[in-house]
Amino acid sequence: VFEIGTPERIVKTTCAYCGVGCSFDAHMRGEEVVKMVPSKDGKANHGHSCVKGRFAWGYATHQDRKLEPMVREKITDPWRIVSWDEALNFAADRLKKAQADFGRDSIGVITSSRCTNEETYLVQKLTRAVFGNNNTDTCARVCHSPTGYGLKTAFGTSAGTHDFDSIDETDLMLIIGCNPTDGHPVVGSRMRARLREGAGLIVLDPRRTDILETPHLGDSWHLPLRPGTNVAVVTSLAHVIVSEKLYDEEYIRTRCDWDEFLAYSEFLLDPRHSPEEVEKLSQVPADLIRQAARAYAAAPRASIFYGLGVTEHSQGSTTVMAIANLAMMTGNIGRPGTGVNPLRGQNNVQGSCDMGSFPHEYPGYRHVSDPETRALYERVWGVPLSDEPGLRIPNMFDEALNGRFKGLYCQGEDIVQSDPDTKHVTGALSSMDIVIVHDLFLNETANYAHVFLPGSSFLEKNGTFTNAERRINMVRKAMSPKNGYEDWEITQMLANTLGANWTYTHPSEIMDEIAMTTPSFSGVSFDLLDREGSVQWPCNEAAPLGTPLMHIDGFVRGKGKFIHTEYVATDERTGSRFPLLLTTGRILSQYNVGAQTRRTDNQVWHSEDVLEIHPSDAENRGIRSGDWVRVASRSGDTSLRAEITERVAPGVVYTTFHHPTTQANVVTTDNSDWATNCPEFKVTAVQVSPSNGP
Ligand code: SF4
């Protein structure tokens, strides 16, 4: 007999929402969660949490979950519930047939940053060792792939350089294209506490975010740049620092290549990078750019945090490198209170990238063409491996529409809702012979699937997630999988149905293989994580308990690299037909496309997406707050209600993308980052007009 609220047992696990990676004590009674309590000893959250982690776990047992495998011949047929054997054989036969008819490279995988490290490792192993190609990609493609490219180029590793504890020691925070109090609330609260203590704040964002409303002692600046001009503004900050000689010469001479810096300085000093010139295209007053540059350079310890407002642009990778340049030239890398941190939107974006889910890299960011790494995996996996990079997600869609890509295993990702240009995605899926959706729910992508494999929630599995500060956190099984299997087991069953002979019996064995094959994880094991609570990679012989701060004595690549960051305007232009720029973001109570949070009580706080529009733009169109409006772009149109606000500047409109009824991605374009194909979700030319509703 239990008193109300008394748990039978407590299972320590990790929140499955954002990249902060809060630790929780799941208070369990039998197979029921009584409550989720943020762990006081959680190293990322120290006993704090937000409304998502604490209250929005009910989706895990929601009635909408599908618990049995299903198949259908054609996507117009009704689903047929079948045994696991039948579903796996159906999937394997069609995948084999696609390869027999259209070649080895005609099938691939899209995995998700929601999955554990161990699941992701197995999915990329399935692609490489069983499919025999490198056609594996991850939803990180559509969020932080430019971080992977940009930070690796500049510093030598694709990860945030400092930990969240550094916030308590920083003197100034430069926040670019992220809204931490909504998107990363526990980190946002920590930032607010530091602001109250007197730290300075610079926000580069087209929209006035809540962090700017924090009562604080220090100075703050909001640079409300026009969407699409990040590179120009960040490069102009560097222009001011160089022209006023505010850089840290000793740091640059010892940690970077001085001649390379001189060449970069020459590039920066060109008048086109001056605040006055950049004001003309970004609409940020030149004086604000100068003040912000001086404040960042003068701060003894300055930290940069950025988000998808940096990466989801046609120049996402260039902005990441411009940010890296700024931090290096002011000596703000490798000391407590300093650094560059890409705040990851999803629980395991970092881990998904670390685990080799990109088509060009093995786990640990080693290129598939590297003979030494390939030989290592050929030895461990016992099969020959391809040295050719595989297809990225948008290339898979293009190849499908060209009739050359015929089969997809999509795990934990609703690509129809979350990828740009929905019509392009659904056209590609419709043209495939086999689409396997492995998920908790029959999501929008499942409308185009032939096989549905029911997935398990974070409460039903063991494994690890890696947060935005490279912290590897344990996920522990609190209840048995309602579908019968943990997700890693399902991938193993599919691999074995296709002819492999995998024999993992627990995710700890998968982590042991990761440690054996990945230098930055060589010291990681479930035993260590149980003992320490969590560790930050690199965790190896040189750092047996992990590495909170990276690049302390030198950059991973040797000398930090300055890249010339030329601003190139996006192809997406406003004009008389589409005069406004639409940009997108998140709200505190909801999460991404809402598949989880919409199935919890959090729904009452935010039941629809709205369009924020400046009073002058609303007045010109005869729009009042609460009116239905039609948002039309070159790609498509959607309807939602208007909210009139001065948070956005004239000429800019903003919405969230949590509700499928809104389908914000119907209007977004298929422009993408030049280096990584990360979609340009943040800049879409639109027209807004009154409407009668959807
Ligand atoms: Fe922590 Fe993020 Fe989960 Fe909120 S959503 S509890 S901030 S990990």
From TrEMBL:
The UniProt GO MF terms for this protein read:
2 iron, 2 sulfur cluster binding; 4 iron, 4 sulfur cluster binding; formate dehydrogenase (NAD+) activity; metal ion binding; molybdopterin cofactor binding; NADH dehydrogenase activity
The entry's keywords: 2Fe-2S, 4Fe-4S, Iron, Iron-sulfur, Metal-binding, Oxidoreductase, Repeat
Q: Which organism is it from?
A: Paracoccus sulfuroxidans
Keyword Oxidoreductase, does the record have it? yes
Gene Ontology terms describing biological process: formate metabolic process; respiratory electron transport chain
First and last residues shown, out of full length: 243 to 936 of 959
Instruction: Tell me the ranges covered by the 4Fe-4S Mo/W bis-MGD-type domain, including all copies.
Output: 8-64
Cellular component terms (Gene Ontology): membrane; oxidoreductase complex
Family label: In the C-terminal section; belongs to the prokaryotic molybdopterin-containing oxidoreductase family.
Give the protein's recorded name: Formate dehydrogenase alpha subunit
Residues crossing the lipid bilayer are none
**Entry superkingdom:** Bacteria
Tell me which stretches of the chain form a coiled coil: none
